[in-house]
Design a protein that fits this description.
The chain is mainly alpha-helical. The strands form five sheets. A two-stranded antiparallel sheet has the order 1-2.
């Protein structure tokens, strides 16, 4: 028990890591090319975490956003039906063709990158098989994407007939898809029940939700289950609303109120108190952070920290606690910088909100500045549309969307909006990355915490003078080279590569320091976010998404197939993000309210009315209760887009109260519980499991920590990808604050989040996977974090009760919100007695090395049970 588990983070390495620099306007392109050509190629870096297959939606999203464009741009010319060329007998334009391969064998072997010739060719691992031929090797980022895709099972939605352009009929089918139609007004839930012949004389329904659910149950030949026991229901409510277990005092109060006021009143009172708790925002804010792909580093090859990301995290928590209307919440995140503000404090809050657009993963090792910008905009379009309307317009970057009603013109109309937007993500230039990001300065005096020191005014002047000197030295060196070349002389000794690199990196470091302080050296409040660029532009349509092949300029606009379809005039002096936010949050928009209502439903019932919560397109699943979905969406909009009243309505329903007890007949009729004739059994999320351990041990610090571990310890420096960064604590789980405040470093999550299926911070994730694997049990047995919680839990039991039977009673109430069953009580006492006897058989010297105390072991056993980490 005392032996800790070693979780190796070994990465698969190809060649030594490439050290590069950011392309800079002050260095000529020919010199950039020379320097890059002399650097060793980057390794193929894929973290161990990437070997675990994600859900289908994440895999398909990776294919559509990364793999399909890569194949179209680099492979179709020689290996597709449309080109009429199948060199080597290979086609890569359909799922079956790419897996069948050509003369050499399968191009893709799902789950096995080493056996996949496509990856071998792209990574130039075989000198006789280097693709694309006669071209520069693909970037390390692109190759890593292909490897990840293959490791994830090579999910590929293409059928053989998808090699041809989408037909008009297919486009019309997509346009007429249910999700893109206006919300249908549901006049009366009772009327629907009657129309279906399901009107039932029953006292079970307490509102429209129950009546509509009961009608569908009746149509399926099912009946609702009885209410869950009060203790189970209370635990369910607490975890769903605030993510923490109820205490024994909470249970006693709840039971007394049931006796005096009845169950309905007791539940309503408890729900209202939890909705008003600051803990509510921490619980539901984390749900949105999953969707917002919140992370505190750039990820990819050059994994540079985002030292100001925590400000957006705190903004989201506060927004949920204040019940900020959802339409306003979205508008602030998309265009907060364009909204009016009463004072500097409000201005700072609105700027921080736009961090949503800046948080995404970034390939800071990209040498081509235009390619970096193109990929940044693509990620923003994908995140906004997937998060808010559960349909990614980014799939139309290289071709008209194969399944949904989005064309390339729609995509590049949005590109113009985001190309007119400057993104501030605040990373320093270093030898580890080519791209630096300026932070966004907040108004002075807004009271925001600052994690970087001020500088003496003399130091500021010294840095500015050094920067001027470096710029002059670079300018003189380039002038000398130009003059020597003009005179036919050898310029190699006039301005060397070493000198150019040294100036570049030192200049980047100085600019990074100066960006954090005022001219007098005072530390500035900084954040991630966006602002409009001085020049507003329309973007060209890129043929096959290739920046080297621009086509016609596309006016900024919104997808034309989605209502409201009335023409929108975008201002010439603004990017159009504010108008985009207003279009997305228009009451007649068919997706925004449906998607949010479905997300809320999924978190309370375990699955959405539309199970593919991040995909409302034609490849997603249809709603199980379409009338109910539209009814709730309509009420949500008419009620002012308020999330708390929506949650309250659902939690107070009889549908939510149902027991999860197994019913064989109902199971056979509805094995997936799509019609909710019972409550679904659910495992707690990683954060709730960890927070529950801290709660029952009595150690949970419910105060919001100041800032973030990433900001305080790492700042804007690179994060080591190999082994644990020495600037970070060995155990990233080790804080006693709530899990939402743990560091979210891409490719380096704390163990408890990593092992218990936390959201991948590089992807929009509305619904997590739930796995049950042996390493989770090993974590509960060997993790220092769990062992420390067990010791604290045992100390709490000793202080809270004066005898073993009473301690056992208290332990079960704290862990499971119930007293132990007779058999559990008997086994607990037998374990404690047997272990104590075995300890007494050793002398004092041996006992001192015996290991954990008997109560520590008992508490760890309870924390490791399935009941502790599951609802019901």
């Amino acid at each position: 028990m005392s032996q800790t588990i070693c979780r190796s983070r070994t990465l698969q390495l190809g060649r030594p890591r490439r050290r590069g620099f950011r392309q800079c306007r002050t260095i000529p392109l020919w010199l950039v090319g020379l320097i890059v050509s002399m650097l060793p190629p980057p390794p193929l870096l894929v973290a161990e975490d990437d070997r675990r297959p994600p859900n289908d939606a994440a895999g398909l999203a990776l294919f559509e956003s990364k793999i399909r464009p890569l194949l179209v741009n680099h492979c179709y010319e020689c290996h597709s039906a449309s080109s009429g060329s199948e060199e080597g007998g290979l086609r890569v334009d359909s799922r079956s063709a790419i897996r069948a391969g050509g003369d050499r064998g399968p191009a893709v072997v799902p789950g096995d990158p080493q056996a996949s010739l496509l990856l071998v060719a792209m990574d130039h691992l075989d000198p006789d098989l280097e693709m694309p031929p006669k071209k520069t090797k693909l970037s390390a980022s692109a190759i890593a994407d292909v490897k990840k895709w293959i490791q994830w099972g090579a999910p590929d939605p293409r059928d053989d007939d998808h090699t041809t352009p989408r037909t008009q009929d297919a486009a019309e089918v997509a346009r007429n898809h249910w999700a893109y139609q206006p919300l249908r007004t549901v006049s009366s839930a009772d009327a629907i029940a009657s129309q279906r012949g399901a009107a039932m004389a029953s006292s079970w329904p307490v509102g429209a939700v129950d009546r509509m659910m009961l009608a569908e149950l009746a149509n399926q030949g099912l009946k609702p289950s009885a209410d869950a026991a009060p203790s189970i229901l209370l635990r369910r409510i607490h975890f769903d609303l605030v993510g923490l277990p109820p205490t024994p005092k909470d249970l006693n109060r709840f039971l007394r109120r049931i006796d005096t006021d009845g169950l309905d009143t007791a539940i309503a009172t408890e729900v209202d108190a939890l909705l008003a708790s600051p803990r509510f925002g921490e619980r539901w804010g984390k749900h949105w952070l999953d969707v917002a792909r919140f992370g505190e580093s750039s990820g990819k090859e050059a994994n540079i920290s985002f030292p100001y990301a925590w400000r957006y995290r705190d903004y989201v928590i506060d927004a949920f606690n204040q019940d900020l209307p959802y339409d306003r919440f979205l508008t602030e995140q998309i265009a907060g910088d364009l909204l009016p503000a009463e004072d500097d404090v409000e201005r700072a809050r609105l700027l921080i909100a736009t961090g949503f657009l800046a948080l995404g993963p970034k390939n800071l090792d990209e040498a081509n500045g235009w390619q970096f910008l193109s990929d940044l905009i693509d990620e923003q379009i994908d995140s906004v549309t997937r998060a808010v309307i559960a349909s990614s317009v980014a799939c139309a970057r290289c071709h008209d969307h194969k399944f949904d009603p989005f064309s390339m013109r729609d995509y590049y109309a949005l590109v113009g909006i985001f190309a007119s937007t400057e993104t501030f993500f605040g990373t320093a230039v270093s030898p580890a990355n080519r791209v630096g990001g300026t932070p966004l300065r907040l108004p002075d005096g807004t009271g925001h915490a600052i994690f970087h020191p001020s500088l003496p005014s003399e130091k500021v002047a010294e840095l500015q003078a050094e920067l001027t000197s470096l710029e002059r030295k670079q300018s003189d060196g380039m002038a000398a080279i130009k003059s020597a070349v003009a005179e036919g002389k050898d310029p190699s000794d006039l301005f060397t590569l070493r000198e150019a690199l040294g100036i570049f990196w030192r200049s980047g470091a100085i600019r990074g320091q100066l960006a954090k302080v005022s001219e007098r050296g005072q530390a500035l409040p900084l954040a991630m976010g966006v602002l409009d660029r001085p020049m507003i532009i329309d973007a060209p349509l890129l043929q096959r998404g290739d920046i080297a092949h621009p086509g016609d300029t596309i006016a900024r606009a919104f997808p034309s197939a989605i209502p409201p379809r009335s023409p929108v005039s975008l201002p010439k002096d603004q990017s159009g993000r504010l108008e985009l936010a207003r279009w997305i949050t228009h009451p007649e928009h068919p997706l925004t309210s449906r998607v949010m209502v479905n997300r809320v439903w999924q978190h309370l019932f375990g699955a959405g009315l539309v199970r593919t919560v991040d995909d409302f397109g034609t490849t997603g699943q249809p709603p199980s209760h379409p009338e109910l979905l539209d009814h709730l969406a309509t009420e949500f909009v008419e009620g002012g887009w308020r999330v708390k009243p929506l949650i309250r309505q659902l939690v107070l329903s009889k549908t939510y109260r149902q027991s999860s007890d197994h019913n064989q007949q109902a199971f056979l009729r509805d094995p997936e519980n799509r019609f909710l004739g019972r409550a679904s059994k659910r495992r707690l999320e990683a954060e709730a499991i960890r927070d529950a351990m801290l709660s029952v041990s009595g150690e949970l610090d419910q105060q919001r920590p100041r800032g973030s571990l990433v900001a305080a310890v790492i700042g804007d420096r690179p994060i080591s990808l190999i082994g644990m960064d020495k600037r970070l604590p060995t155990d990233l789980d080790g804080s006693v604050h709530r899990s939402i405040y743990l560091p979210v470093i891409r490719d380096r999550l704390p163990d408890v989040l990593d092992l218990f299926d936390a959201a991948e911070p590089s992807l929009v994730t509305g619904q997590r996977e739930t796995t049950n694997v042996p390493i989770q049990a090993l974590y509960m047995m060997n993790s220092p974090f769990v062992q420390d919680r067990s010791k604290a839990f045992a100390t709490r039991l000793r202080r809270g009760a004066d005898s073993a039977p009473r301690r056992v009673e208290l332990a079960f109430k704290l862990c499971f919100n119930r007293p132990p069953y007779p058999e559990e009580r008997k086994r607990s006492m037998a374990f404690l007695s047997a272990t104590e006897d075995s300890v007494r058989s050793f002398d004092e010297a041996e006992i001192s090395h015996k290991g954990p105390d008997v109560w520590d072991r008992f508490c760890q056993a309870l924390l490791s049970t399935a009941e502790f980490r599951n609802l019901d």
